[in-house]
Design a protein that fits this description.
This protein has 610 residues and is α/β, with parallel strands linked by helices. It has three domains: 233 residues, Glutamine Phosphoribosylpyrophosphate, subunit 1, domain 1 (4-Layer Sandwich); 189 residues, 3-Layer(aba) Sandwich (Rossmann fold), CATH 3.40.50.10490; 143 residues, Rossmann fold (3-Layer(aba) Sandwich). It has 19 helices and 25 strands. Helix 9 links the parallel strand 16 and strand 17. Helix 7 packs antiparallel against helix 15 and helix 9 runs parallel beside helix 13. The protein starts with a strand and ends in an 18-residue tail after the last helix. The chain binds 2-deoxy-2-amino glucitol-6-phosphate (AGP). 2-deoxy-2-amino glucitol-6-phosphate (AGP) binds next to helix 9.
C-alpha cells in the first residue's frame, strides 16, 4: 500500500524524492505529497491523483531544501483528498509525518488531544502522530517520537521531520517495512528497496520497535528504550539500475503477459539439470533432510498467489501424495492453526510485502514451524523473515493485476515438487525427465497463444458491456477459473465469479440467462466430459458460453458460442496455458471500457495493511 521515500544530502531533494515516489507509485496512487526542510523551514506540497500531478505542481513552485520526506497514498482512513494526503502536520505546521499502516487507537488519542486544544484538519489516523510529536517535542525529535510511539496501537512505518530539530529525519517501524540506504555524505529512507536501489546498495533494515535518526553523514539506530544499537549493514544482492519501462507496449500489464514465455524458458534453464533428469534448488534455506520429514504442507497466500497455491495443492497431492492445505493468509493468521512437528508452511507472494502473508509467516514461526516462501522480490520482508525462499525470477511486476508472477509461481511449484519428489523418492528420474520435457514445451506453446488472439479480441468486443461474468473450471483448472474472474474484476470493474464447475448447480446456476457470459475452461483432460455436462446445463438456460478448449477439439464447437483454443499439453500443466487467454480477455475488455489497466481504482500492488 502506501510508499515512503526520504532523502538527506546535497542533491536536489525535489527531483530525488519524486523519482523515488515514481518507483513506488505501484504501492498506492490516490494522492501524494512531499515535505522538505529548506533552511530549517518546513515546506509542503500535496495533491490528489498521480505522482505526475505532484511533479507538475513542483515544477511550477519547487520546494528545495536540505532534506525531505515524501509519500504516495492508498487510503485507509479518510478519503483520498489533498487534505488527507501525507505528509501531515500538527497545529503549528512545524512537524511533518509520512506513515504507512494503520493507527488503531487514533480516535481515543484524538479525543484527548482535542481536549488539550489541538485542532485536527484531516480524517486520517496519521494526523494524531503529528500532534502527539508536537505535544512532546522540546527540541529533540527522536525523544518526542519515542514518547509518541508508546501511545500508538497498530502498525506503522514512519518518517518524520521537524523545524524544531532540523538536519535529520527520524524513522520508526512496526509491522511495516522501513529501510535506510547509506550513501556518501547522503542518506536515504524508503518503505521499499526499489525506491532507492539505484542510488545505493548498502542497506539497514529497521526492525520492529527500532527508531532511526538519519543525518547527512551519520545514522544512529536505537531500540524502543533509547539504547544505541550496532546494526548490520547489508549489501543488496540486486540493484535496479533503471526505472520500469514499457518497452513499446501500451501497458505494463500487456508487456508482462507477453513476458511469460521468456520467463518460463529462463527459469527452466536456471533450475533444470543439463541432462534434464532433475532440478536443483540450491541454498533455499530448507535442507533436503527437513523436507524428508514433512508430512503436511500448509500453503498460505492472498489473491492471485492463493490461486497459484491451489494449483500447487493439486500437483503436490498427485505426485507426492502429500497432505496439502491452502489457506488465505488473512484467515490463517487469526485461526490458531495446528502446528504438528511434521508441518511445513509455504507462503507465496509476488511482492514479498503482503501484510497478511507476513503475519502468517510470523505466526508459523512463533509455533516453531519452518516456513518456506515462494517469492518474486529478493530482500523483501517475506524473503527476509522466512526460513527459506524459492525465488520466482519473474522480474519486477509493475501492473497491479498479477500476470507473469502467477505463471512463475505455478512453474516454481511444479519444479519444486519435482525436486521434493526426487528427495522423497516418489518421483523417479524417468518421471522427472518426462515432466521436465513437457514443461520444456511451455514457452513455445505460450507464444502460440499470444500469436493468435483473434477470438479473444472478438469476445472482448462482444461482451465488454456486460455487467456480470461467470468463470467455471474443474480439477487443475478450478483455480484458473478463480484467477480469470479476479483478473476481470480487477482491471475492468465487471462483477465476475469464479467457481468449481460442479458447484454451479448448487447456486450460481440461478444467475444464468441469455445475458450472462460464462467462460468455461474445458481442455481435453480427465474432467472434460464433466465440463461438457456443465456446459449443456448452461446452454439449456440460454447462457452464452466462451470455451477455452484444446486445439483440435471440433466437438466443443457444437456446444458453445465461442471457442478460444489453446495448444495440447499434459493436464496438470494446462493452467500455465489456460490462464493466458483469460489475462488477455480481461485486458482487452478493460481497454474497451476505458479503464486504467495498470493502476485500477482502489487497488495497490503491495497490500501492506491488513
Ligand atoms: C493480483 O492480481 C492482485 N493484485 C492481488 O490479488 C495479489 O495477488 C495479492 O495482493 C497478493 O499479493 P502478493 O503475491 O504480492 O503477496
Amino acid at each position: 500500500m502506501c510508499g515512503i521515500v526520504g532523502y538527506i544530502g546535497d542533491k536536489f531533494v525535489d527531483s530525488l524524492l519524486i523519482a523515488g515516489l515514481e518507483r513506488l507509485e505501484y504501492r498506492g496512487y490516490d494522492s501524494a505529497g512531499i515535505a522538505t526542510l529548506n533552511k530549517g523551514k518546513l515546506r509542503i506540497r500535496k495533491t490528489t491523483g498521480k505522482i505526475q500531478l505532484l511533479k507538475e505542481k513542483l515544477k511550477n513552485s519547487p520546494l528545495g531544501g536540505e532534506l525531505g520526506i515524501a509519500h504516495t497514498r492508498w487510503a485507509t482512513n479518510g478519503e483520498p483528498t489533498t487534505e488527507n494526503a501525507h505528509p501531515l502536520t500538527g497545529c503549528k505546521k512545524s512537524i511533518a509525518v509520512v506513515h504507512n499502516g494503520i493507527i488503531e487507537n487514533h480516535i481515543e488519542i484524538q479525543k484527548e488531544l482535542i481536549k488539550e486544544g489541538h485542532i485536527f484538519t484531516t480524517d486520517t489516523d496519521t494526523e494524531v502522530i503529528a500532534h502527539l510529536i508536537e505535544k512532546y517535542i522540546d527540541g529533540n525529535l527522536k525523544t518526542a517520537v519515542q514518547k509518541a510511539l508508546k501511545r500508538l496501537k497498530g502498525s506503522y512505518a514512519l518518517a518524520i521531520v521537524s523545524e524544531k530539530d532540523p538536519d535529520k529525519i527520524v524513522v520508526a517501524k512496526k509491522e511495516n517495512s522501513l529501510i535506510i540506504g547509506i550513501g556518501e555524505n547522503e542518506n536515504f529512507v524508503a518503505s521499499d528497496i526499489s525506491a532507492i536501489s539505484s542510488l545505493t546498495s548498502n542497506i539497514i533494515f529497521l526492525e520492529d520497535g527500532e527508531i532511526g535518526v538519519i543525518e547527512k553523514s551519520k545514522i544512529e539506530i536505537f531500540n524502543g528504550e533509547g539504547k544505541l544499537l550496532n546494526k548490520k549493514i547489508r549489501k543488496l544482492k540486486w540493484q535496479l539500475r533503471r526505472g520500469p519501462r514499457k518497452d513499446g507496449y501500451e501497458h505494463f500489464m500487456l508487456k508482462e503477459i507477453y513476458e511469460q514465455p521468456r520467463i518460463v524458458k529462463s527459469v527452466l534453464k536456471r533450475r533444470v539439470f543439463k541432462n534434464k533428469r532433475g532440478v536443483h534448488f540450491k541454498n533455499i534455506g530448507i535442507t533436503p533432510d527437513k523436507l524428508l520429514k514433512v508430512n503436511r504442507l500448509v500453503i498460505q497466500a492472498c489473491g492471485t498467489s492463493w490461486h497459484a497455491g491451489w494449483v500447487g495443492k493439486y500437483f503436490l497431492e498427485k505426485y507426492l501424495r502429500l497432505h496439502t492445505e491452502v489457506d488465505f493468509s488473512s484467515e490463517f493468521r487469526y485461526r490458531n492453526p495446528i502446528a504438528g512437528g511434521d508441518t511445513l508452511v509455504m507462503a507465496i507472494s509476488q511482492s514479498g510485502e503482503t501484510a497478511d502473508t507476513l503475519a502468517g509467516i510470523r505466526l508459523a514461526k512463533s509455533k516453531f514451524v519452518q516456513v518456506l516462501s515462494l517469492c518474486n522480490t529478493l530482500e523483501s520482508a517475506i524473503d527476509r523473515e522466512s526460513d527459506g525462499t524459492v525465488y520466482l525470477y519473474a522480474g519486477p511486476e509493475i501492473g497491479v493485476a498479477s500476470t507473469k508472477a502467477y505463471t512463475a509461481e505455478l512453474l516454481a511449484l511444479f519444479l519444486f515438487t519435482i525436486y521434493w519428489g526426487r528427495i522423497k523418492e516418489c518421483i523417479s528420474e524417468e518421471e522427472a525427465k518426462n515432466i521436465i520435457e513437457e514443461l520444456g514445451k511451455v514457452p513455445y506453446l505460450m507464444k502460440k497463444i499470444l500469436d493468435n488472439q483473434k477470438e479473444i479480441i472478438e469476445c472482448a468486443e462482444k461482451y465488454y458491456q456486460c455487467s456480470n461474468f461467470l468463470f467455471l473450471g474443474r480439477g487443475f483448472n478450478y483455480p484458473t477459473a478463480l484467477e480469470g474472474a479476479l483478473k476481470l474484476k480487477e482491471v475492468s470493474y465487471i462483477h465476475a465469479e469464479g467457481y468449481a464447475a460442479g458447484e454451479m448447480k448448487h447456486g450460481p446456476i440461478a444467475l444464468i440467462d441469455d445475458n450472462l457470459p460464462v467462460v468455461c475452461i474445458v481442455p481435453k483432460d480427465s474432467v472434460y466430459e464433466k465440463m461438457l455436462n456443465n456446459i449443456r446445463e448452461i446452454k439449456a438456460r440460454r447462457g452464452k458460453v466462451v470455451a477455452i478448449a484444446t486445439e483440435g477439439d471440433e466437438k466443443i464447437k457444437g456446444y458453445v458460442d465461442h471457442v478460444i483454443f489453446i495448444p495440447k499439453i499434459k493436464e496438470e500443466f494446462s493452467p500455465l496455458l489456460t490462464v493466458i487467454p483469460l489475462q488477455l480477455l480481461a485486458y482487452y475488455i478493460a481497454i474497451k471500457r476505458g479503464c486504467n489497466v495498470d493502476q485500477p481504482r482502489n487497488l495497490a500492488k503491495s497490500v501492506t495493511v491488513e
